[in-house]
What does this fold into?
Amino acid sequence: MLHTLLTPAGEHLPTLPWPDYPRPQFRRQSFLNLNGAWDFAVTDGDDPPAVFDREIVVPFCPESVLSGIGTHFAEGSALWYRRRFTLPEGFVQDRVVLHVGAADQILDGWVNDIPVGRHVGGYEAMAFDITEALGPGENEIRLRVRDDLRSLVLPYGKQVTARGGMWYTPVSGIWQTVWLESLPTQAIPGLVIRADDRVALLDTGDSTQEGIVTVDTPQGPLTAPLHSGRAAIRPEAPRLWSPADPYLYTFAIDTATDHVESYFALRKLTIQEAGGYRRLCLNGQPMFFHGVLDQGYYSDGLFTPAGPEGYEADIRAMRELGFNTLRKHIKVEPEIYYYLCDKLGMVIFQDMVNNGDYAYWRDTVWPTLGHQRCRDDRRLHRDPAARQAFLTGMEATVRQLRNHPCILYWTIFNEGWGQFDGSGAYEKLRALDDSRWIDTTSGWFRGSETDVDSRHIYYGPWRLHAKEKPLVLSEFGGACLAVEGHRFNPDASYGYSTSTTPAALQQAITALYTRKVLPAVRRGLCAAIYTQLSDVEDEINGLLTYDRRVCKPDPAAMQAVADALQTAFGESCGGPAG
It folds into this structure.
């Protein structure tokens, strides 16, 4: 029997959930939040329902407890959302835009029965200009979302129709904030930030934009001209971003008609040799990335925690256990998540979301037995529509997240899921972003162009020794502890080893790091990502329970492990670790 588990924040859900401004790096004063209760109905055709017979709480998917529905509907069903609203007096400037943070997978929108747009893809933000569809007084939004896991063309991550083991309850419909903003004439259309350890280059994407950029620095306000939509910011005595000092430079762009607020960080990524091995270096110093796999699932909201405080609690909990890195696994989060990581100094290794078919023997058993190289992955997953959908999703992910300084590392393919032409995908990603490290094949099916040598080890011998590229252990661990009263599925469990008490779990984790990871650090290991941050459904191998109410390991013991890793890493580099 599956149990309903509420996180602490889920116990007291406000009438307006997720009230926070959803776009921290491109903030305007104009903001009307449309989260909360929406009319809801489900049909099996294209036509709108005659009656909206249910109510759903946005931004939670209908499968979640927090949505008020708690049901997964038949694949391909049309999920209909309706909301009536009246714009506040003085809200409208020139154009009005409807934003949906994400909806899985295909969304069509209408305002007052007038079509306003379509978006395909379950993990990206979308925006529709609804100005011409608006009327005086009350207006009506209708959104139709379709999700069909019978087709594996669009990216879907770890969702399956029959959940179990390491595969999870499917998510459909809206799962991020819905909101309105009004734009002035000649609005700043966007912002791309490219920064290193000395200068931040800002580009609005509109060569006609002229204005002033005002930056808050430790030495006081700094101004620079915005000319032809671009500006270069060179702070005096640059304060560099790192987990130890996650300093953010806040700034505002003012043009004749618009005002936008944002932030950037100064930091530089390189690969350099230290102690005889190639190292991942932040701001010129080798750094050991002591990390945790973060899948971003919550017991009550599934894809969406009850509020942003759920993300912050996770980040702070991992910091308290000594970790400095989260591998965001097979999921793209709302921008608030990355803002919190920027602010709190948590490094992110960001995965792309997989699509295509999965085969247990080909993608898991065979590589686990040692067959991990792939001479030519151009022959894998040949469906051209699926290939294009993956590349489209990859590009959308980079364009949406590229301004966040916490993201140091992109992962393209995980354990062969949907993998094809890794070298070609690497080149496409490198063209989109030449400032971050790229892990083309995390785990196995290696052989493509990549910046790192990325391995997964759950079973068998550890044969880790760095060679030509920085060595990354991008998954390992997975020690299990069942905490009764906090299990989603008491009748089934999934993980890689079993402990019966918190003390035994801590002993197992400490032994794994001491006997396996530390020797690998001395042989050039640059990063180690432990599985995982929290339990997820049948998986009970989390450091936290699925409901985030119990931290299983001992924080002091985990901090001692972290200190030992950093000490060993510093010694292996020939000096203190960064």
Notes: The mean pLDDT is 96. The radius of gyration is 24 Å. Helices lie at 308-320, 335-344, 360-368, 384-401, 422-432, 502-522, 555-573.
